[in-house]
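Forwarding these from the shared drive since the link keeps breaking.
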Amino acid sequence: MSVSLIALLLDVKYKHSFVLLVLNIAGGTASTLGVIAIIRYGLSGLHGKSYLSLTIGIILWFLADLIVYYYFIINVEELIDISIIDVLYFIGYGFLSLHLFFIMKDIQRKINLAHVIIISILTILFVFYIVTNLLVSEFDIDDNFISIVVSLMYPILDLILIAPSAIILISLRKDYQQSIPWFLSSLSLFVNAIADDGYVIDFISGNSENLWIWELFYFADFIIMSGALFWYNKFHISNNTKLIHITKQ
């Protein structure tokens, strides 16, 4: 909340740089907590594999955000054509979707098929609406084909984050206290996916003055993710360590 307030009070020319800075700090924090979790817990079981996938995805997105910040500092405009930034984001989608897959596999008994169908239909309709709007009103016929494909990939790839995240959130709504890390990590990815669509629309339409608003959502995404990883480190891993110690005795 305080970061949003500061961003609102800052002069227009400082808003973007400030939000990018705090975004990278939050991304670095989430990446560090993820690495700590992997080192402490290891790679065994669904939890280990899940948080390994999550941490790799976070680090890839963090690196992409660092490059964006570097480009901003040296006054290089972001290009719509594909770049290393897009590659890092796209690979990150794969690892983050794998994280969600592990969660859904663990809670499959709690998942209601009707919820899956409804959420899937709504998500597809939402992404279809975003893509259609972009194709109809935002792109010029002279735009580079690769630029168009890359820009459309973001809302399409968000399908693999929005639908599973929403399913997990609904499935854990009554039991989130027992599954807080996975609940928060799914909420984080859900927030990110929604922000992606807004960012792409503003970026393609040339509303660069509004991009800092969506970057606040990305900041919130990393903060929520940090909360998930902190909880996981503080309670889940600590409890497992104590249990192993007691068992050995």
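-- next protein --
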Amino acid sequence: MKRVAVVILNYNGQKFLEKFLPTVIEYSSDVADIVVADNASTDNSVAYMKEAFPNVRLILNGSNGGFSTGYNLALSQVEAEYYCLLNSDIEVTPHWIEPVIDLMDSDQTIAACQPKLLSYYDKERFEYAGAGGGFIDKYGYPFCRGRVFQHLEIDHGQYDDVKEVFWATGACMFVRSEVYHRFGGLDDTFFAHMEEIDFCWRVKNEGYKVMYCPQSKVYHIGGGTLPKSSARKTYLNFRNNLSLLVKNLPKKAVIGTLVYRILLDWIAGLKFLAQGSIADLWAVTRAHLSFYRHLPALKKKRKSLKHTNVSQVYQKNIVFKHFLEKKMLYTELNEQDFS
């Protein structure tokens, strides 16, 4: 058993396994065990894995419980000091594992870490899902170094410093297995989207750090399971964003932040309407209805969690900064505005 286990969660992703798994094996197998966990795929993924990669461990989940449940089920069966949760649509590079493990070994308070995430199709440009490390503003809007909303920066080496961040991308997240299991892994109710932000926030509330390691570099296609423009994705993002706020905000900030966010959500809904996207407006509506319905359960979860004022939160409104003040780059934000 190696110290690191690279675990790829697959759902109907045979084409990605064909394309990227050989490179993962080539650049990882000397330092990591490689596991593919299948989320009850309906394509030929399982048969393909058994035929093409009989030496790669295959875990079969009984149903498609989404990203969160899929990984929780799989990782309960994997023994390693470190897990790497790796999307199936990622191309890794030589020595992508070692720098991250060296960094995490150097500080036992580092719970999670991500590499530099670049676009597979435009390899000089950061990729949406994690770019140069994730942050949120005081109202829960996520953004990254190298990606503010839909604006993606070209990588000029401007984010080549090791840095503490707020969240690490679930597309390629290294995490201490002991911490993962002690804090219950990913929240099953999220299904997919923002579950990694929720997890990182929970461990930060307990005093752990989340880091970005640019010496490791991977290339991500993105939208492998859900298209980047998808009403289903809109629903999950709006619902889960409200949920992680209720679960993790300090007590004094919960009500005010939620009221403000709900108002901004409906402004976003009106924008969808103006753009003729009725499906996205309906997705926002359904997201809020689901959130209100599950609010008692969220409040119960909240009672079991610790809440503090954590670091790396942008204490301004990134929506206003980006759309009204036209701040397109992370470097245009004032570092003093981060807690």
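The two ends are 40 Å apart (CA to CA). The chain has eleven helices and 14 strands.

- D.
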